[in-house]
Amino acid sequence: MPGLDPRQCEEPARTSGAATAVRKPQILVPAVRPGHLEPEKATQWNTTNLGLRFGADLTSAASASAVVAPVICVIDRSIVEKAAKGATFSSCLLRSLRPAVTRPHTFVFSRPFLLIFSLYLSTYATANTVDTVSSIVSSSPASTVTSGPTKFAATSFVNMSMCVYKDSCFARMFGVPVPSASTSPAAAAAAAVPKLSYALFAVRDSFTIFASFNLPPLIAPHLCNLPARIRSRFSALLSTEAGRTNTAQFLAPAAVQVISTPIHLLGLDLYNRQGSLGFRKRYLRVLRDWSVSTFARMGRIVPAFGVGGVVNSSMRRNFMTKLEA
Question: Which of 257, 182, 178, 180 is nearest to 215 (CA)?
């Protein structure tokens, strides 16, 4: 048997070792652009002149409240006295107006006036504060006006809470007098207000708040799209952005009374005629008073949220525009 060359024996071993050798994997790393490694930018808030902006919110709210409070105080007192005593509205109005004319210095410090003033001060101040906080968080101009659900919820809660307290105080001050000892217990006990009436009053106030603070910024831009004949006739009101805003501030609260008044009347009827009355009887009572009550509530709501809303929004816009400069 011929001898084997040692080099021939080593060759397969080297070949086998080479075959079993494992190569190191090559991992392809994608190129990263330098821009991707930049740190995230911090959220910017508009906090310029923050103290002055909140001061402008409060000043605008207080000025608007001082303008509307005397009129609303006289009207609300007249309504309560008429419902309690059954007198004519004109006589109640004159009786309520007398202290405001003869003793104005006493009238403005009286409890009824301060209740009305506090009601509208808190409502306007809440709406203004929501606008300012929104402009801070969104880094918007200080004069920005919002119309979202946050503003609606905040102003509705504050306004309805203050309204309930104000109405209870007015009922005690100008409503049915405290019964004497000879009055029967049944007559002396005040009828409880049904929960459904409270719910209807809350819906009524929600409509008013929405139409006073949320609706005007939404409809004002569309007033320039009215027919040319209407725009030419009311050019003094619709030719400028401020004029359209003020027009919307007057129209929206007044127009919504067409919807909210029957809700208000149904709530009153549920209180005045408690019991299981059919839908038809209540519908006829609401229908009977609908037109007169609608115009009466328009006459009350226009000073409250029309005039007051224009004063508040105009003053705030002027203040914030100067602070932005």
Answer: 257
